[in-house]
Amino acid sequence: MAIYSVWNNKGGVGKSYLTFQVASEYARTHRGQRVLVIDLCPQANSSSMLLGGILAGEHHLSQIHQGNQRSTISGYMEERIFSPYANPRSGGRFSTRVHDFNNMVPDNLYLVVGDEQLEIQASRITAATNPGPQDAWRIVHTWISDLIADIQHAWDQEQITVFIDCNPSFSIYTELALSASDRLIVPFSADGSSKRAVRAVLSLVYGVQRYPGQAQSEFFLNTQRYRMSSPQLYMYVGNRLTQASGSSAAAFKSVVNEIGDEIHAVWQSNAGLFCIHPNGAPVPANKRAFKQMFQYEVNDANTASVVSGASGIPIASLTSGKRMVLGKQVVVNQSQLDKQVPNIQQLAAAIE
Ligand SMILES: Nc1ncnc2c1ncn2[C@@H]1O[C@H](COP(=O)(O)OP(=O)(O)O)[C@@H](O)[C@H]1O
Ligand SMILES: [Mg+2]
User: Fold this and answer.
1) Is residue 139 a contact partner of residue 63, using CB atoms and an 8 Å limit?
2) Count of CB atoms situated within 10 Å of the CB of 136
3) Is the whole model's pTM more than 0.85, yes or no?
4) Nearest by Cα to 30 from 160, 150, 151, 149
5) Mutation to probe ligand 1, out of 16, 17, 313, 337 (largest number of atoms < 8 A from CB)
6) φ, ψ of residue 271 in degrees (nearest 5)
7) What is the average pLDDT across 25-43?
8) How far does CA 16 lie from the centroid of its chain?
9) pLDDT band at residue 16 under the 50/70/90 scheme
10) If residue 136 lies in a helix (H) or strand (E), which one and from where to where?
11) Number of domains observed in the structure of the chain
12) Rounded distance between C-alpha atoms, residue 98 and residue 103, angstroms
């Protein structure tokens, strides 16, 4: 049983795309267990891909949003806003079997559907953290853990794996996601601003200070105060790297390595923030071993990723050939799939 948050303080780095691909691949290779995606981003991009992509997925999304009982993340949040401190134990009815909407996704994959109303609810969620009982902040930060426990109870399953797709901003619902998860996956793109974004993650979640006296987040301080656990860093993923050889590939590589060096420095002073994996693996003894355990790279999948996301077909199930995407014909090459598919498969295989 592991709960992963996929988060970076920056948008457009592939959180939703990787959630879609990795959760689908993980479900495909773990048919005996249920996999749950919780979409805690009001943009609902991973929900849209899972539910069938640009056309079918968007259609299914609005169908679910307009349903009588709003069986989305916002439906659940609404119940918690009305009952913030007494757990209504109603979370079991908020998960959707993705296969019922999109048969390209394995039938053991479930989703708590994303919802743009989350943004509107944010101020009321924050309001519930204060005032209220003395530990109101702590209780509100267990809402998503409660949701997962309810779903697990409704399923009567011991072994489930959960992926939470997060919003880039460090909003209240991002905090709730992090409080619920035990492991953190940080995708980043290899551009100039990525280093700053990764630093922000380290400082917001773990209170890593870059200079003495640097202000620490309310989340970090309250997590300490209430002795709550934070997710351990599981992997950081350089995403959309170019496959072209030459200077741009070299530039990407150097950004990835610089970020790796910075995270390695955090490891040297606070190894407890990291999740050694696979279970039982030896503790990395040097920087090279550290990067082997925690640093991952995913190439830009070009047309394959566009077709995969737009049509809700996980990349490992995508076949080569001509496809229509929004009225335009595109071609997925087998050679491209041969390169991209192992990328996602290796990433999913590294997840326990
Ligand atoms: N490895 C990849 N190859 C090609 N396109 C990608 C890859 N990862 C992400 N993308 C694309 O980049 C865009 C931003 O990704 P997205 O997952 O929405 O970012 P985030 O959730 O972090 O904001 C999307 O159009 C997505 O399909
Ligand atoms: Mg996203």
Assistant:
1) no
2) 16
3) yes
4) 160
5) 17
6) -65, -20
7) 98
8) 7
9) very high
10) helix 136-140
11) 1
12) 8
Residue recorded with tokens 């992963």: 4
Give CA–CA dist 268/271, Å, rounded: 6
pLDDT at residue number 286: 97
CA distance 340 to 118: 33
Nearest atom in ligand 1 to the alpha carbon of residue 11 is 23
**Neighbour count for residue 59 (Cβ, 10 Å):** 15
Using a 6 Å cutoff on CB, does residue 300 contact ligand 1?
Answer: yes
d(CA 138, CA 226): 7
Longest CA span, the chain: 60
* pLDDT higher than 80, residue 333: yes
Residue 192 domain boundaries: 2-349
Q: What is the 3-state secondary structure (H, E, C) of 245-274?
A: CCHHHHHHHHHHHHHHHHHHHHHHHCHHHE
| Other beta carbons within 10 Å of 129 | 19
Could you give the CA distance from residue 184 to residue 182 in angstroms, rounded to a whole number? 7
Q: Is the CB of 88 under 6 A from ligand 1?
A: no
Residue 321 forms beta bridges with which residues?
A: 332
Helical (H) or strand (E) element with 57: helix 53-66
- For 187-204, how does the pLDDT look when each residue is reduced to its tens digit (9 = 90+)? 999 887 899 999 999 999
Q: Is 336 in the pocket of ligand 1 (CB under 6 A)?
A: no
Residue 98 maps to which CATH number? 3.40.50.300
Residue tagged 């209220």 (tokens): 132
What pLDDT does residue 140 have? Answer: 98
pLDDT recorded at residue 94: 97
Residues 204 and 293: their CA atoms lie apart, in Å, by: 23
Cβ contact 8:187 at 8 Å: yes
CA separation for the pair 293, 295 (Å, rounded): 6
Q: Are 73 and 44 in contact (CB under 8 A)?
A: no
- Overall size of the chain counted in residues: 352
